[in-house]
Structure formats: structure tokens, C-alpha cells
From TrEMBL:
<protein>
    <submittedName>
        <fullName>HEAT repeat domain-containing protein</fullName>
    </submittedName>
</protein>
<dbReference type="InterPro" id="IPR004155">
    <property type="entry name" value="PBS_lyase_HEAT"/>
</dbReference>
<dbReference type="InterPro" id="IPR011989">
    <property type="entry name" value="ARM-like"/>
</dbReference>
<comment type="function">
    <text>Catalyzes the hydroxylation of the N(6)-(4-aminobutyl)-L-lysine intermediate produced by deoxyhypusine synthase/DHPS on a critical lysine of the eukaryotic translation initiation factor 5A/eIF-5A. This is the second step of the post-translational modification of that lysine into an unusual amino acid residue named hypusine. Hypusination is unique to mature eIF-5A factor and is essential for its function.</text>
</comment>
<dbReference type="InterPro" id="IPR021133">
    <property type="entry name" value="HEAT_type_2"/>
</dbReference>
<dbReference type="Pfam" id="PF03130">
    <property type="entry name" value="HEAT_PBS"/>
</dbReference>
<dbReference type="Pfam" id="PF13646">
    <property type="entry name" value="HEAT_2"/>
</dbReference>
<dbReference type="InterPro" id="IPR016024">
    <property type="entry name" value="ARM-type_fold"/>
</dbReference>
């Protein structure tokens, strides 16, 4: 039992630690850099499963599982009956990673019979295994007294796709008298999309206690696309419970019944900001010409209170008939929430709006430029690239982010010189800048990213390595190999990941990568 304490972070921290790609040992050169030893070979790990040290056995098990080393399965199955709880746990996690369904029953039995390991050890293993046949062994834990474990059970049932146990869960839920557990059942039934649970979930909404259970019930109604829930959910938008409003709006969107539009539209008259926000989300998201027409009607009226919401609705509904009115109102300084109007033009998608958007982008107004930058990007307006570059120098950090995103959407090479300059001036913004550069499919863009990997600033070289990996350009392989053999231990590890993304090869040591490179 002296090895048992390490189990607490076992599934979360240890796997990550053991999976870190160490770097080759070097002779002492006087550098202050920490020397990291080379990772064990698969052969050594297989031999370690027979070690007399329980911690060594458990480490080897987890490593072999993460490497998807199927030759380890016979030994790992034997370790499920090891005398040490940590070894049993490690073997179960490894077999879960290996998707060895022949071990599922044994691991499920251990979940109920092993008093030395917490149940979530084996629940985690079964979740990784993705075997829906064990759902009938897992779902009874929904009635456990441990709230955290119950939530893990919900996740496990969803991850393994255990929809077949829906009737059993509903039966268990119908007998439940604990309001707190009702939340767990609602979550499980909703996420598993058990439509037969509609009546049960609707009953949960009758208790207006502003509890997590009520919020979960609203969300579940959406997930099962409940046919009788529309009135309940629309009413919830006007209740004082914030989380209830949010979940009810999400449910209405998921159900997507356009018949609710008139009633939801009425809630825009509410004085409650949250109610208006969630009602607007619903009216934006359910495809409905009626919603667009009603919103357009507001824009033609004198009451400006809901103009911002109306602009968002006509935009998201792509109501082209509203374009000219939106442009007209966007140009007026007195129009409230002008960013919504600019964004609406982006959603409508008519490039004839580009001149107005360019004008507002550089106007210096407190509202409008952000939405205009976004819209110009969505419209792919190459003619606006010079304006977006100017926006980068406005000294407005928020506008800079929007302009970078727009330049990435447009992906015009003419922006590269400015982006390169900005990278040297603002290294803290390297992730946003480099992600913009990476969207431009030219050699110059690739070279800028590669040059950034050579930086000594971690804020720059880390996102640069990530973009090299995402770009998957094999022309970057020679550069990555220089890092494999370089002095920077972190860059060596990052180069392993990037090389795997670019080449599809999976090596864990510099020696292996060099051997691969010679044999290409």
C-alpha cells in the first residue's frame, strides 16, 4: 500500500508526465540547460512489466498503453490481478487506451469489487475503451452518493455511446426522490438523447427552484428535441433565473421549431438585458424568414431600444432586403450598437457593402470599427487590406485582434511585410500574428513562420512550432531536424511533435528521427 498514494493524480498528471518526449543525453558542455534522459524503448518497457518494483510496473503499463503497443496486452491482462492497486490501475488504463474489449468485463468487475482503487480508476479505463456493451455495468453508478462520480458516469456513458441503457436509466430516474440526483439523470438522458424521457424531464421543470437541476432539465429538453417543451422553454426566457434562461435558449435553438418565433420575439420588449440577449440568440439561430421580417420592422420604426438586436437577427438570417437600411443606420453616429450593424452586413454577404465598411473601419468611432473589420474578413475584401493594415497601427488592441483575424480570412500576401514587422514589435501577440500568417498559402509566409521558430523568446517559438505542425509543409522538415539535434531541450521536444504532424511518422527520440531522415 506504500505505493498507493500516487494514484490520486494518476489518470490526469501521470499519463502526461510519462508521455513527455524526453531528449537525448549530452555530455556536459558547461551549459546551464537541464539535461533530460532519453525515453525507454518499447522493449525495455515490456521487460519492465516484470519488474519487482510496483511503481516501475505501473509506469511501464501506462507508457505501453499510450504507445498503443498491442504486444503488451497479454501481460497487461495478467497485471489486472496484480497484488498492488497501482499496478492494477495502470494496467486497466493501458488496456483502455489499447481498446482491448476482451478486458472490458474484467475491468468492469474490478470497478465494483476492488476496494483498494476508487471506482473512477476503472471508469476512466472503460471510458477510454469505448465499448458500449459495458453500459449496463456503469449506469447504476448514476445513483451513487458521490456527485463527482455521478458526473463522470454521465460522461462515460456518452463517450462509450451507451444509448441502449436509456430505458434502464429512465426507470432508475423515475424512482428517484433526490432532487440533486435528478440533475444527473436529466444530464444522462439528455446527452444520450433518450426521447422517451420527455415527460420525466418536463416534470422536473415544474419545480421552479432556480437549481442546477432545473437548468439541466431545460438543456436536456433541447437535446432530446422535446415536442411538448416549447411553451415551457419560452416562458423560462422571462424568468429571473439566469442559468435557466441561458439553457432554455440553447434548448429552443436545438429543437429549432420556427413556430416559437412570434412568442420569443415578444420577449425582446423585456427590460431585462439577459432575457433580450437570449431571445436574440434564439431568433438569430432558428432559420426563419418571419424572424427576419419582424426584426426588419423594428429597424424601420422610431424606437431604437432594440435596434442592435434587430440588426443581429436580420444579419444572421441573411435577410438581403435589409442591406440598404443596415448600411444607412451604420453610417449614423447616433445608431446604437453599430458593431452589430457592421457584422450584419458580413452575414448578409453582399460585397457592395465593402465601401461603407472600409469607411467605418478607420472612422475612429467607438462603435462600428470592430464589426467592420470582422465583416470585411468574412466578405474576403482584398481591396480592404490596406485599411486593415492601417487599423493595426490605431493603438486599439481590440481592433488589432479583429484586423488580424480579417487579414487571415482574406489571406492576401500583401499583408505579410506588415505582419512580419508587427511580430518583431509585439512578440506577446505572436499566437494571433502567426496564426494569421499561417493562413496565407505562400512560401514567404512559410519562411516567416520558420524564422519565428528560431527565436529565443518562448512566446514566439512555441506558437511558431505549432503553426509549422498545423501547416504540414514537408519543406519545413530540414529545419525541424536541426532542432532535433540542437541544444534547446524544449525545442527538441516541440520538433518531435511537429515532425510527427508533418510526416506522419511517430518517433520519440533524436536517434530515431535521425535514422529516419537518413533512410528517406
Amino acid at each position: 500500500m506504500q505505493k498507493y498514494l500516487f494514484l490520486v493524480p494518476f489518470f490526469f498528471a501521470l499519463t502526461l508526465i510519462l508521455n513527455c518526449d524526453p531528449v537525448p543525453p549530452k555530455e556536459d558542455s558547461g551549459s546551464a540547460e537541464e539535461i533530460v534522459s532519453e525515453e525507454q524503448t518499447t522493449k525495455e518497457l515490456l521487460e519492465s512489466l516484470d519488474s519487482t518494483d510496483s511503481f516501475t510496473r505501473s509506469q511501464a503499463a501506462v507508457q505501453l498503453g499510450s504507445r498503443e503497443e498491442r504486444s503488451a496486452i497479454p501481460k497487461l491482462k495478467k497485471l489486472l490481478s496484480d497484488k498492488e492497486p497501482g499496478v492494477r490501475a495502470g494496467a486497466a488504463i493501458a488496456l483502455g487506451d489499447l481498446k482491448d474489449k476482451s478486458s472490458a468485463t474484467t475491468i468492469a468487475n474490478l470497478m465494483w469489487s476492488d476496494p483498494e482503487n476508487p471506482k473512477d480508476v476503472y471508469l476512466d479505463a472503460l471510458t477510454r475503451m469505448k465499448d458500449p456493451s459495458v453500459g449496463n455495468r456503469i449506469y447504476p453508478l448514476l445513483d451513487d452518493s458521490n456527485a463527482t462520480l455521478r458526473l463522470q458516469v454521465v460522461d462515460a456513458l456518452v463517450q462509450i455511446g451507451a444509448n441502449s441503457v436509456g430505458p434502464q436509466i429512465l426507470s432508475l430516474a423515475s424512482k428517484n426522490k433526490d432532487r440533486e440526483k435528478d440533475k444527473t439523470y436529466a444530464m444522462a438522458l439528455g446527452k444520450l438523447k433518450i426521447s422517451a424521457s420527455e415527460s420525466y424531464i418536463l416534470r422536473l421543470t415544474q419545480i421552479q427552484d432556480e437549481s442546477p437541476t432545473l437548468a439541466a432539465a431545460y438543456l436536456a429538453l433541447g437535446r432530446i428535441k422535446a415536442k411538448k417543451a416549447n411553451d415551457v422553454l419560452v416562458k423560462a426566457l422571462n424568468l429571473p433565473y439566469s442559468k435557466g434562461k441561458e439553457n432554455a435558449s440553447m434548448a429552443l435553438i436545438e429543437i429549432g421549431n420556427p413556430s416559437v418565433v412570434p412568442k420569443v420575439f415578444q420577449t425582446l420588449q423585456s427590460d431585462d438585458a439577459e432575457t433580450k440577449l437570449y431571445a436574440t440568440d434564439v431568433l438569430c439561430s432558428i432559420p426563419s424568414k418571419e424572424a427576419a421580417q419582424l426584426a426588419f420592422g423594428l429597424l424601420n420604426g422610431k424606437d431604437t431600444k432594440n435596434w442592435g438586436s434587430a440588426a443581429k437577427i436580420v444579419g444572421r438570417q441573411r435577410y438581403k432586403e435589409a442591406r440598404l437600411r443596415i448600411e444607412e443606420l451604420l453610417e449614423k453616429d447616433t445608431t446604437p450598437e453599430r458593431d452589430n450593424f457592421a457584422e450584419a452586413l458580413g452575414w448578409i454577404g453582399d460585397k457592395t457593402s465593402v465601401p461603407v465598411l472600409r469607411k467605418i473601419l478607420l472612422s475612429g468611432a467607438t462603435e462600428g470599427p470592430y464589426g467592420s473589420a470582422w465583416a470585411l474578413g468574412i466578405l474576403g475584401a482584398k481591396e480592404a487590406v490596406p485599411d486593415l493594415i492601417k487599423a493595426l497601427d490605431k493603438g486599439d488592441a481590440k481592433l488589432m485582434v479583429y484586423a488580424l483575424e480579417a487579414l487571415g480570412s482574406i489571406a492576401d500576401p500583401s499583408s505579410l511585410p506588415k505582419l512580419k514587422e508587427l511580430l518583431s514589435e509585439r512578440p506577446k501577440m505572436a499566437p494571433q500574428i502567426l496564426s494569421t500568417v499561417a493562413l496565407i498559402p505562400t512560401e514567404e509566409a512559410r519562411l516567416i513562420i520558420e524564422e519565428a521558430t528560431k527565436s529565443k523568446d518562448a512566446d514566439v517559438y512555441r506558437p511558431a512550432m505549432e503553426e509549422v505542425a498545423k501547416r504540414k509543409d514537408k519543406k519545413s522538415v530540414p529545419l525541424l531536424l536541426t532542432f532535433v539535434n540542437g541544444d534547446d531541450s524544449e525545442k527538441r521536444k516541440l520538433s518531435y511533435y511537429a515532425l510527427t504532424a508533418v510526416t506522419g511518422q511517430k518517433f520519440r527520440t533524436a536517434k530515431e528521427w535521425n535514422h529516419w531522415a537518413k533512410g528517406k
